[in-house]
């Protein structure tokens, strides 16, 4: 059976492996088809593609776009995108600019809380192109303000904590549009993580489909209760969305999420790859 992992990160966003190391690890873990989906940028794709060349791994060019819908931050994964598409790249650049402004604000807030130098500190961990909360988390751990990245998120970087700044990301319709304009498939990433009621999730799906989205990430790498997978499969099927699966791998240190280690997709689902078989030479 072909092993698909359609959601992963490299140092081009907030992952900790280079794109080539990510590809090597995916091969070691038995992944046949890997999508590199860095946050708001595609800078890792060329290296990943080169690393996958002459191996048995098929590399899918992907991205994970930050969007805001109904006041909630949601993530839209795009697969099989043309990374040279101008509209997509302009959109992604605008998200990275928002990230810089947000990072400055996070640093100001942390300074008020008695932690100076966080902007430069976070930048040290980031590639030149994308600055995210994980980079702040690494800085805060390094300086002894928390014992782990998960601990930083709990104590500093979420709502009602000293370093929290709400991001104002792309409109859902724009995020989807950038992906589809670049020839890609748009997928709602890790839907359970938004903690929405089923009713709200259905409303999100309606708006997402109106914008041209076609996929729903039913299977994710974090420990998912089988009931959650069933529920997400039902939502996808009811809405006639293709189902996707991805580990959302970020780093080997985070040992509860591994590349390719995914629960099986329920048989009732229509896998997203049935929508892109022509693009892959499997
Ligand atoms: P950002 O897009 O910069 O707001 O950061 C979002 C990223 O932070 C996610 O993609 C994860 O990589 C990471 N993240 C979010 N929540 C947590 C958490 N509780 N523990 C560890 N990493 C997290
Ligand atoms: Mn991330
Ligand atoms: Mn995400
Ligand atoms: Mn992700």
SSE order and pairing:
Blueprint lengths: L3 E2 L13 H10 L4 E4 L8 H8 L5 E12 L2 E8 L6 H27 L5 H8 L7 H10 L6 H9 L12 E2 H10 L3 E4 L9 H14 L3 E6 L5 H13 L3 E5 L36
The structure holds adenosine monophosphate (AMP) and manganese (II) ion (3 copies).
Helix content: 25-40%
Q: Tell me the β content.
A: 15-25%
How many discrete domains? 1
Number of distinct beta strands: 8
Which H/E pattern describes the elements? Answer: EHEHEEHHHHEHEHEHE
Q: Looking at the structure, what is the overall shape?
A: globular
CATH architecture identity? Alpha-Beta Barrel
CATH fold type: TIM Barrel
What's the CATH H-level superfamily name?
Metal-dependent hydrolases
- Could you tell me the radius of gyration in angstroms? 18 Å
What is the terminal-to-terminal distance? 12 Å
- Which cofactor or ligand species appear? adenosine monophosphate, manganese (II) ion
Report the total helices: 9
For the biggest sheet, the summary is:
8 strands, mixed
Query: What are the segments in which pLDDT stays under 50 over at least 5 consecutive residues?
Result: none
Structural class: alpha/beta
Mean pLDDT across the residues is 96
Q: Given this structure, which CATH class is correct?
A: Alpha Beta
């Amino acid at each position: 059976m072909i092993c698909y992992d359609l959601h992963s990160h490299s140092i081009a966003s907030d992952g900790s492996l280079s794109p080539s190391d990510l590809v090597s690890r995916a091969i070691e873990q038995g992944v046949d088809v890997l999508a590199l989906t860095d946050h708001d940028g595609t800078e890792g794709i060329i290296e990943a593609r080169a690393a996958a060349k002459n191996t048995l791994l098929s590399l899918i060019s992907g991205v994970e776009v930050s969007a805001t819908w109904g006041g909630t931050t949601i993530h839209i994964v795009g697969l099989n995108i043309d990374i040279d598409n101008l509209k997509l790249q302009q959109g992604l650049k605008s998200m990275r600019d928002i990230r810089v402004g947000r990072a400055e604000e996070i640093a100001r807030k942390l300074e008020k809380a008695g932690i100076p130098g966080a902007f430069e500190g976070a930048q040290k961990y980031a590639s030149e192109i994308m600055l995210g909360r994980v980079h702040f988390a690494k800085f805060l751990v390094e300086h002894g303000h928390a014992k782990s990245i998960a601990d930083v998120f709990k104590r500093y970087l979420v709502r009602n904590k000293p370093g929290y700044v709400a991001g104002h990301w792309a409109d859902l319709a724009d995020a989807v549009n950038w992906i589809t304009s670049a020839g890609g498939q748009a997928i709602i990433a890790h839907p359970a993580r938004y903690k929405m009621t089923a009713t709200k999730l259905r409303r999100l799906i309606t708006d997402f489909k109106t914008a041209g989205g076609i996929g729903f990430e039913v299977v994710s790498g974090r420990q998912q209760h089988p009931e959650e997978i069933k529920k997400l499969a039902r939502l996808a099927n009811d809405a006639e969305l293709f189902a996707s699966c991805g580990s959302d791998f970020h780093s080997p240190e985070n040992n509860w999420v591994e590349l390719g280690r995914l629960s099986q997709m329920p048989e009732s689902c229509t896998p997203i790859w049935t929508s892109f078989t022509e693009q892959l030479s499997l």
